[in-house]
Amino acid sequence: MKNTDQQFNQIFANYIKDFEQTPISDEMRRLLPIVIFSIQGVTEQLPEYVKDAVVHAVPDEKILEAIYQLEPIAGIGKVRAALKAIHQVISVDNFSQKQDDPQFGIQVQQKIYGTEIRDLLADLPDGAGNFVADHLTNHFFGDFYQHEALTVKERELLELVSFITLNVDFQINAHAIGSLKAGNSESEIVWTIINILPYVGFPLVINSIQKVHAAAEKLAQMR
Asked: Minimal CA–CA distance to 205: which of 219, 190, 220, 217?
């Protein structure tokens, strides 16, 4: 098969080398493109990047849970398509051990976000707001956060990256604050977002790091 676009591929290879020296964990660096390609639906890229993650000792369970938790964000279709590609490389196909506490998810949500979404949707008719808020709590936080392969801090950071990839302003702003409250520093978040430059481009990254900086300043004023 002819090796096409060699000059372009070399430019990209040289460009991406610089990101290896940035101050984020090697595990996070390897998880980022897997999450982003899954959100984008670019599943043909996934086996290559999953192999790279495995070579760099990212646990299979961590890769899977980074994708499982995308279902409430991107929908079941994209997650199943991503998992099909990922399972070309890894055979583990289940959650890691979980917290034995049915209240864990709601406690995490309340600590980080309070009742923000419930309050936002309170005026919707016929209980619609409560339906959405209840399922956000029970499904998004309850079903996923209690599994231990990813920490809450890591989950919040990967979710923020997911919302940046989707370019949804409300969620980017909310999860910038949430990621800070979960224990990520402004520097950790900014450098993580910088590391997604090769996968989402400069406009989304520049926009998002400004939002993170504003969120950090807002949080500092509240304390």
From this structure: 190
CA nearest neighbour of 65 among 82, 48, 42: 82
Give 121's contacts (C-beta < 8 A, 6+ positions apart). 128, 129, 130, 132, 133
**With 0-12 CB in 10 A as exposed, 13-18 as middle and 19+ as buried, what is 6?**
exposed
Mean pLDDT of all residues in 158-169: 97
Instruction: Give pLDDT tens digits for 166-216.
Output: 999 999 999 999 999 999 999 999 999 999 999 999 999 999 999 999 999
Rounded Cα distance between 197 and 156, Å, is: 19
b/e burial code for range 117-147 (CB count within 10 A of at least 16 → b): bbeeeeeeeeeebeeebeebbeebbbbbbbb
Nearest to 25 by CA among 184, 214, 174, 172: 184
Secondary structure of the chain in the HEC alphabet? CCCCCHHHHHHHHHHHHHHHHCCCCHHHHHHHHHHHHHHHCCHHHHHHHHHHHHHCCCCHHHHHHHHHCCHHHHCHHHHHHHHHHHCCCCCCCCCCCECCCCCHHHHHHHHHHCCHHHHHCCCCHHHHHHHHHHHHHHHHHHHHCCECCCCHHHHHHHHHHHHHHHCCHHHHHHHHHHHHHCCCCHHHHHHHHHCCHHHHCHHHHHHHHHHHHHHHHHHHHHC
Question: Does the pLDDT value for residue 1 go beyond 60?
Answer: no
